[in-house]
Amino acid sequence: MDKTQVVTVRGLRKAYGNRVVVDGLDLDVPAGEIVGLIGANGAGKTTTVECIQGLRKPDAGTLRVLGYDPVTQAEELRPLIGSQLQDSALPDRLRVAEAVGLFSTARARDGGDLLERFGLAQRRRSAFASLSGGERQRLFLVLALLNRPRLVILDELTQGLDPAARRNVWAAVRQLHDEGTTVLLVTHEIDEAEVLCGRVVAMREGRVLDAGAPADLVDRHAGTATIRFSLPDAPALLLDQVRRLDGVREVERAGARVTVRGARPVIAHVGAVLVGWGPVPADLSVHVPTLEDALLGLLDGADVGDEGAEYRELVGGRR
Amino acid sequence: MNTAAGRLIRAELKLMTRDPLVLTFVFAFPIVTMLIIGGAFGTKPTPGFDNTNPAHWYVASYLTVVIAAVGLVMLPVHLASYRERGVLRRFAAAGFGRWSFAVAQLVVGLITTVVACTLLLAVAAPVYGLPALHDGWRVAVALAFGAVGFVSLGVLLGTLLPSARSAQAVGLLLFFPSFLLGAGGPPPHVMGSVVRHIAGPLPLTLLTNAVRGPWLGLGPATGSLVGLVLLSVAFTAVAARRAVL
Questions:
Q1: Which residue of A82, A83, A229, B52 could cross-link A149, Cys pair, CB 3.0 to 4.6 Å?
Q2: pTM, entire model
Q3: Strand, coil or helix: B39
Q4: What distance in Å separates residue A222's CA from the closest CA in chain B?
Q5: Does B163 touch chain A (CB under 8 A)?
Q6: ipTM for this prediction
């Protein structure tokens, strides 16, 4: 095994009855990186990480995680992984400090420090049932980090959190990365993946659609920047000048409204032309593609079926 | 003791003291019903109670009610709730040993049983007096196998039933007929022959017979003891496989 790879998965397949959930998936997670598994609900992300943790037995494929085989060496492997699972809980009456005690092994770091760092020090005596959604997620993060894990798996980490709580949790994950911890982040929140991950793996129907740095995915699947402005008496000469700029793919005019589409450097060129021409239009706007646009482009390029519709609905709700 | 099983046992014992279901059903219910039914038949030995003091007959029977309450009500609800809410998955993912949870449940179930039985005897002693033990070893063996067997049955039910609600429904459905027919209900002589035949092979009836006979000097109840031991071994073997994380 390549020692720089913490997780190596080849040809992973898992079906529940007749429904194939993961189908021939390959995945690499290099040491010290934050890798995001992204895709709509039902893409097979959670099943993949459950196989990586040895919580589910794959039907086919090979997995090496921290040098162990999760199928045959789960007992040795699991203590080395810190995981925050989707849809799991603690006993309602278990208090925060007791949970830390329960999950602390001989390798554990100071639980008090972690509680302090994640803003739970004041809730040490509170029962799990009395914690808010954000506090529960932060407690799960504390438990995931408690035993100095070499790999941290975070599954839908910020689901149900308010924006402020999400940003607190993101800051904590970035801090993990700064400390050199390898993180596998499972999410359908594309902005979360874009903010946190050095590399993302886009999944659909149990298969990898594409993988790479978020910026690379954006370039490959949503490389077009859009510039809009109004110029009521724009002469044809100006529009011709814009059309001839390097990287411009399309110029549209509808009344006074002008829309220019092209590669990202076009933003600077169009800006320069407008500044040279005269007063810069007050309604000038620029849309730079995001990872979300890239994923939509990726789904458009594939036979996306119901899942594409589901994903569009998912991201459409936030737009 | 910083093993996963040790940490689980400590946490589970703390949680138990905060659980109203355990406090009422395992600790209070057997004591209250023993006081009621023990007083209903008086203290004069009668043939219907094999010529023993009826109150003593019930004191010797009610330890097994505690054991059944732990095995048929407390543990199934507790475990099914853990499974339903993903608590067991969290334990497994955190690297708790494969057997740690099963061992912890066995130990916690047995500790609960011992504490609840001690309380029951402490209440019975000043009210009805404690019947003399005729064959203490046989009683101890029966109680030990009964406790392990019912705790295992509880663990098994908790791993088989899909939710805490279904575990509570099934647990109570098993508990009350067993309780009424085999331990704390009316004496066998007032039951019809059909009911007695139904009651005979029930696990709680076997356990109660195996405890009450040698305790009150009514006979060794060897058949019941053998049946109990076989059931206990079977329940434990199956439960151990099902409760692995």
A1: A82
A2: 0.78
A3: helix
A4: 38
A5: no
A6: 0.82
